[in-house]
Every structure is written in C-alpha cells, then in structure tokens.
Amino acid sequence: MEVVICSDERQVGEVAADRVISWLEGLVTPVLGLATGSSPIALYDELARRAVLGDIDFSHALGFALDEYVGIDPEHELSYKQTIRRTVVEPLRMDPARVRVPDGSAEDLAAAAEAYDLAIAEAGGVDVQVLGIGSNGHIGFNEPTSSFASRTRVKTLTQQTRDDNARFFSEGEQVPTHCVTQGLGTIMDAKHLIMVVTGEHKADAVAAMIEGPVAAVCPASILQFHQSAVVVLDEAAASKLQYGDYFRHVARHKDGVGELGS
C-alpha cells in the first residue's frame, strides 16, 4: 500500500488524478469503478478539469458504480445513479449509456447483484477503482464484519452510516436501511485502487486501515493485501497516523526508484 500525504484538498485531487491518468494511459476502453461521497470529489473535479483541457478523454470509458440504496427511486436526486451522473458522468464527459449503477429497485435483488458482477467481468474487469472510506472503516457499503470474499450483494446499513448520511436527506425523510454494494472480493479484483480521503473526521478510520491489523471490523484494511493500492490523504485525514513522518519521508525521496509502498 502506498500512502501519499498532501497539504490540502486541492493537492489531493491533483496527486490522485496524476495516478489515475498514468494507469489509464494507452487503454482503448478504460473501465472505471466509481465511488460516491464527499472525499472523491477533489479527484473528480481535477479529472474533469483535465478532460476539458483535452489531457484525457473519458468518452469511450466504461463505468461501474460501487453501490446504490435499496428501494430509492433511481430518479431521486439522492440516488447514487443521479449522484454519479452529477458528480462524475457529466463533468468527465462520459457517455451515460456506458455507466452502470447497481439496481436497488430490482424485483430480485440477489439476481441483479449477481448480474452486476458478471457485467464487470465481461467488461474485462475494473482498471481503476476509486474509493473513499466511511468513518467506521467501510468501503463501498461493506460495513464492519463484511466478508473479505464477498461479491456484489444486499447489505444492511449500520446506524452510524445512516446517521452519517442523514445530512444529505431532507428533515423527516427516511434514510435507506439497505443497499446493494460491490463486495470486498469484487473491489479487490480491480487492477488498481485509488483511495482519496480528506478531513479529520476520517482520521481514526484511516489509521485503522493503514496501520492496524487486517480485520473485518475495518473492512478497508483489506487494501493492505492489494498489489496496487494508493491512498491519498490531506493532513487532517493523516493526523492519527503513527508513521505519518515516515510516509512523508518516503514520498520526498522517491526519485524514480519505482512504486512506493511496503
């Protein structure tokens, strides 16, 4: 796992975008795994800026969102289908017909989830998976105690996750209790993982993911086992890292010696 600590959110977006573009270079049909949430916005904004400049073209890319709420109208502004459209598809000039989101309204959710994994496999797998991290250590909606071998499936959201997401919903509006999410096994199949994290409220989860044991109680800790995982943090998100100074030292002295990491 490579850890890059940046001075602020703007630099986080720039560093993460550099890595994504380097991974996608030369691919005729890049396949992107797309996360929602606030942290990846810095990355998406920077990629959108570079798309406008002509530095990268996403028009032929395929996209697969990480998750979707169960039971929410796909046209609801807070569905992840609409969130992905606003924050990723339109800014990056992607073709909406080439971007898929798990079907949280399917009559047979289990079958729809299985079909989603199959669609990813038929696309050749995800080239770059964008990730954020929940305050309880989840990635996608793989809540604590999720199986490391899990595939796309229905999950029950923890109360903490529902409380964290309540700010997006109107007062009195029901926060969904279930979701369809790519599993940890599905996520780990991606060729490259890029996690973007900003804010002190994520610092405990970041420390557990990077420096703690690999354990199901912190689902994101599975990234320690991925051969190409990069975590890009601002100073606030990195504030609880015991080895923060070491990660900064490694970044300063990279000097063309290859990929950073352990």
From TrEMBL:
<dbReference type="InterPro" id="IPR004547">
    <property type="entry name" value="Glucosamine6P_isomerase"/>
</dbReference>
<dbReference type="GO" id="GO:0005975">
    <property type="term" value="P:carbohydrate metabolic process"/>
</dbReference>
<dbReference type="Pfam" id="PF01182">
    <property type="entry name" value="Glucosamine_iso"/>
</dbReference>
<dbReference type="InterPro" id="IPR006148">
    <property type="entry name" value="Glc/Gal-6P_isomerase"/>
</dbReference>
<dbReference type="InterPro" id="IPR018321">
    <property type="entry name" value="Glucosamine6P_isomerase_CS"/>
</dbReference>
<dbReference type="GO" id="GO:0042802">
    <property type="term" value="F:identical protein binding"/>
</dbReference>
<keyword id="KW-0378">Hydrolase</keyword>
<dbReference type="InterPro" id="IPR037171">
    <property type="entry name" value="NagB/RpiA_transferase-like"/>
</dbReference>
<dbReference type="GO" id="GO:0006043">
    <property type="term" value="P:glucosamine catabolic process"/>
</dbReference>
<dbReference type="GO" id="GO:0005737">
    <property type="term" value="C:cytoplasm"/>
</dbReference>
<feature type="domain" description="Glucosamine/galactosamine-6-phosphate isomerase">
    <location>
        <begin position="29"/>
        <end position="228"/>
    </location>
</feature>
<keyword id="KW-0119">Carbohydrate metabolism</keyword>
<dbReference type="GO" id="GO:0006046">
    <property type="term" value="P:N-acetylglucosamine catabolic process"/>
</dbReference>
<dbReference type="GO" id="GO:0004342">
    <property type="term" value="F:glucosamine-6-phosphate deaminase activity"/>
</dbReference>
<protein>
    <recommendedName>
        <fullName>Glucosamine-6-phosphate deaminase</fullName>
        <ecNumber>3.5.99.6</ecNumber>
    </recommendedName>
</protein>
<dbReference type="GO" id="GO:0019262">
    <property type="term" value="P:N-acetylneuraminate catabolic process"/>
</dbReference>
